[in-house]
Amino acid sequence: MFSMLLLAITSCNNSQKKQPVENNGNPFFTDYTTPFQVPPFDKIDTTHYLPAFIEGIKQHIEEVNAIVANTEEPGFENTVLVLDKSGKLLTKVGKVFYNLNESTTNDQMQDIARKISPLMSQHGDDIAMNEKLFARIKSVYDKRNASGLDAQQIRVVEKYYNDFVRQGANLPKEQQNQLRKINEQLSMLSINFGQNLLDETNKNFMLVIDNQKDMEGLPEAVITAAAETAKASGMEGKWVFTLSKPSLIPFLQYAGNRELREKIYRGYFMRGNNDNKNDNKSIVAEMVKLRAERSRLLGFDNYAAYVISENMAKTPANVDAFLEQLIKASLPVAKAELAEMQKIADNEGANFKLQSWDWWYYSEKLRKAKYDLDENELKPYLGLDNVRDGMFAVATKLYGISFTKRTDLPVYHKEVETFEVKEADGSHLGIVYFDYFPRDSKGGGAWCTDFQSAGWDNGKKVDPIVSIVCNFTPPTADSPALLSWDESLTLFHEFGHGLHGLFTSGKYNRTAGVVPQDYVELPSQIMENWAGEPEVLRMYAKHYKTGEVIPEALITKIQNSGLFNQGFQTVEYVAASILDLDFHKLTSADNLDVLAFEKASMDSIGLIEEIIPRYRSTYFAHIFDGGYGAGYYVYIWAAVLDADAFDYFKKSGDLFNPAIAADFRKYCLSECGEDEGMVQYVKFRKQEPSQAPLLERRGLK
Predict the structure, then answer these.
(1) Catalytic site residue 348?
(2) Which of 110, 255, 301, 528 is most buried (CB neighbours < 10 A)?
(3) Which residues of the chain have pLDDT under 50?
């Protein structure tokens, strides 16, 4: 929603002291008086956002004008540092609004988003294209190596200078005006894409069942949850399944009614492609076209080149080669998996060729046949509280930190819980919010953001306030929330992002914790590795009724099935990554037929019809509403790093090796923004990463 420059500027936590603003009861206009200065959600009303945004923009403009008006020779302290510490109010309101608009939105919030988007786009451009401000930045940049600056100050100067150039500061006015128009259009298109997808997911489809026979094969807990969903929807006595993953996936895995499996899966993969008011095809086409135009204006061949030039991969060609290697290794494995499943179906007398809506159902049968592992056998040991506490225990053993539940902090929804995080010496480190379950007002998926980033304010440390939002299987009247294995890994994953936010250190907002996009998933993905280790499973996997530790036989089954379905999982992910890159390697995109382009992209890699890309174009929120455009590949790029890093722990003979953990925290989590991503990784690992551990982990060698 923001330009990269505006993100860099407004990610700060501090600024020059401002004259008091008449607050009219608006909590954003005063210092928070809550414990740990968390947002006072109980006092924030939707009417507070727009005035706070407008005032925040006004104050930010005043700060920038003061930099420009300074008659002293431009230097680090009076130009770059002041800019780095500017925009405090804008950050304050933005961090609350954008987080809540994703997790608990309503019509009023969405209307505010539509009003704010062009204002923020214009504001970002006004700063990025401020000729006098850029002249001062350039002056500091040109003499940076002869001004007595330390290495971190030089890095900050270089980052800001590059930000301005990448946002059009060097363009002539006519082209800057073109860029402004494109930026505003893109910001609105992104909002419209996301709002359409939210409606398509949470409002425009539900599978209503009134014949219990149609639920044959479904676990009792899934049936109970569907009955509760129906009751909440005013359809007591029926069963309702939705497109939220906790409802969708179990239905695809276990429902014997093939016709209904197809119906709900079509509901899922046709989102944004139903030729209704929420259709996203024209939005996708326009965004791809505008991104290509924007990149050409800025001197890049295409949007992929623009984005990846800042990443570890450096060029689209490097990413292409990486993904080509993976698709060549994984597609034969996926085809072998399909053949095994087709054999099961044939032996059962199914008399049909498997389709995409059959994959989950028959892969579950295959898992049972090959490994004697039924996920329903596992779920009773994966109560949400147990998984969460196990994840906390891993962090404690690695880093010495502790977690204390707080019930005295305001929350934005009754289901949200909060924890205080302390260092080993008992000092306060930060706060973490957890929001676990689906609701109509929440976007799909899982993510980690923050309400306050770690930083410094007038020489005083500002502590992080992290937010983790998920869409997990909710509790029922008969049981607590019992997670699937995938949900358990997701919780560990997002918590890894949270640790990155908690441990971030650095004097400057532009660089503290800021890493290349294809490094971002290293802190999250490495945490997933601990979740399935036998030593760790024994710590947290306990039966929700009896407290019995997970049996060794079940642990063995989990270990033995580690390579299960890896062909499918890798292919569907890499296919989506290639689709993303193909869109964004276009040098122009006039009259783009989105569906035809998608098909051609997938045909070019030989994607089999039984697998569709993890995200099709019209619901690919990562790239059209989530900041991952030309960057969805980053998860598997970072997987090379996380597999290599965890291999380092394992080969040391100690999963919680204190020296390795200390180095990982220091170089890869705390000081990660102090140099380029690979440089920081090598400081930790003492060598460049190998692809071998990843390929071995996925059975693709």
Answers:
(1) no
(2) 255
(3) 1-19
